[in-house]
Amino acid sequence: MPPPSNSSFSFHSSIRVSLVATKEKMGEGEKFQLGTTGALTLSVVSSVSIVICNKALMSSLHFIFATTLTSWHLLVTFCSLHVALKMRFFEHKPFEQKAVMGFGILNGISIGLLNLSLGFNSVGFYQMTKLAIIPCTILLEIFFFGKKFSKRIQFSLVVLLLGVGIATVTDLQLNALGSFLSLLAVITTCVAQIMTNTIQKKYKVSSTQLLYQSSPYQAATLLISGPYLDKLLTNLNVFSFDYTKHVTSVIVLSCLISISVNFSTFLVIGRTSPVTYQVLGHLKTCLVLAFGYIIVHDPFCWRNILGILIAMVGMFLYSYCCVIENQQKAASEAAAQTSQAREGESDPLIGVENGSTVLNKRPPVWSKEKD
């Protein structure tokens, strides 16, 4: 029995290599999913923790300077990341300075506008403003990036927004200035979150590297504008506040938690998408409402319960649809790689067979000796 030809051996080896590469890619996908789950969990835990902490700070201790507090959060985040850089926990990767500066300033402006929107509108209208961020993000990604959202995803988001709206929106008092500020807040927030995702992919930087380079600009924007915005909204001066030991300790705790909040925000948007991050934000809202009722005994009614249940159904549908579509995408990519490997080997096989045919057509050596 003749030994297998080199061509068939090469073909089977290529198939094995392709299968190994596919398995390795599936393993990387599982690690990516595990990392994404960790990022989502970190974001939820840290965000709910800082909301509870800030609620105690503002409601019980009457420190109501939200914009200035956010600037301190970003400043502490930058300092902690700088220490981590010096300890070589991550590598500094500089990229286009104009992009970093514009991104950082835009993020700072969006935070200030959201606070102004809350100050000049009713709580119900402010919640509607936050609900409008998801549809606006989807429209921007469709028009400017050509991204497509399936009918299942769209339906799940409608259910989610309906539930959150029922749970949180109460009164809708409109005014021209408040509506204009809300519109600006929605647009700047959507653009900033889309940029968070696109910058990480375009310049191949991690969430930590992007946060480290942009947080100084965010902090500077809010440090300059924060005291003026807080003065406008509260008629109080942040610098004349009585900083007791209790107040200072809670502020320090809030700043420490904010490190995890800011880091997880960039991590989640970089690993998933701005829409997924907003869905996660509404999950946090529902959890905060539930914890407020259980722990602090905030007023709760059947409307809140119904809205939270509907929102949870929408979140489950969104998560399920995302998992199914990611699995389908991974399977189609694996099938495409396998078919490309087979097609790539078909040409060399034909070439070898043709070559062997040509070689066989040459006269053998013994015939020359015979002549």
Automatic annotation (TrEMBL):
GO CC aspect terms: membrane
Subcellular localization, as worded in the UniProt entry: Membrane
Membrane-spanning parts: 63-87, 99-118, 124-146, 153-170, 176-198, 249-270, 302-323
PANTHER family in alphabetical order: SOLUTE CARRIER FAMILY 35
Protein name: Sugar phosphate transporter domain-containing protein
InterPro entries registered for this protein in UniProt: Sugar_P_trans_dom, TPT_transporter
Disordered: annotated segments: 335-371
The keyword Membrane is annotated on this UniProt entry: yes
Sugar phosphate transporter domain: residues covered: 46-319
Nuclease recorded as keyword: no
Record membrane topology: Multi-pass membrane protein
Keywords, ordered alphabetically: Membrane, Transmembrane, Transmembrane helix
